[in-house]
Design brief:
Length: about 350
Amino acid sequence: MIHAGLEGIVAADSKISLVDGKNGFLVYRGEWAKKIAKERSFEEAAYFLWNGTYPKAEELERFTTSLSEARTLTKAQKEIIDRLPANMDMMAVIRTLLSAKGSEEFSFPAKHDEGICLLGIVPTIIAYRYRSQNDLPFIEPDTSLSHVGNYLYMLNGERAENHHVQALTAYFILTMEHGLNASTFTARVIASTESDLASAVTGAIGAMKGPLHGGAPTGVIDLLQEIKQDGDVEKVLRRKLDNKEKLMGFGHRVYKTKDPRAVALSEITSTFYDDEEFAMAHEVEQTAVRLLQEYKPDRNLYANVEYYAAAILRAIDLPTELFTPTFTAARCAGWIAHVYEQNENNRIIRPSSVYSGSMPE
């Protein structure tokens, strides 16, 4: 029997995360991802994902310091970015720079300082390229800021509001890992050949670049923009439902009930009602869920993580072309965790195929 796309095939035994779409569960190493997003920093979450335990105070300080020091681009790395074609998209830029970092210092099995090296530099690559493309001076990283706070600072040239950092940090944590998805599987396949960490992450970026995996939630952004311009949430949503249009950002292929990531982001941003964008996002969500129950009572359709990703993206004024790169900056932590796990008990991943061609005469 052929399982197209390997759907339903178990290819790994992992302690990193549980994605249970039927029950709406997302667990990181025995803890609810939602709880981690509410109570922990990105640095603590990444350390936990890699090690299975939370860092003690001195361990967190060392990890945070190492990660912040890894943000700096060398002169040679800046020159590589500067020489890339102007029409090269951001995902290709990240892929190229991380590939260039895969020198002889990276080896099998992957070491933790290699993971820190890659995780720390991705936001800087994005910020440097973005500001360069927009004729803005580069903002050097600020080691006193958190991983996410510094990312926003490098992009905008000023310290972001606390609730914007809090919302984006929760997003980073809730999207850093999501089981054996296409990009993570790619990373593990590469790691299984005893290749190095930079190669595995570079391959994962190639998978993330595809619109079926890491595509930006432009449909959600368009929906929110249309509602904002019209001013009447229910009228716009009813018109779409009457026209048999899909409400972008509602429903999920994996989660047949509420998407736990969207639930967490909704709860975390529910205190930000003084922010116009977040207030509107919550009103749209509540109205859409009510109308979907009215129009499609036989289906459980709720906001998914893409909906709240778009809401957060709009609230912090992040350009839409930076959504997938930002998603990549977050998911990089999960890819690295999976490479470490693959290295611990490695066996080359090599599925079979069924030949459907003709035979020679």
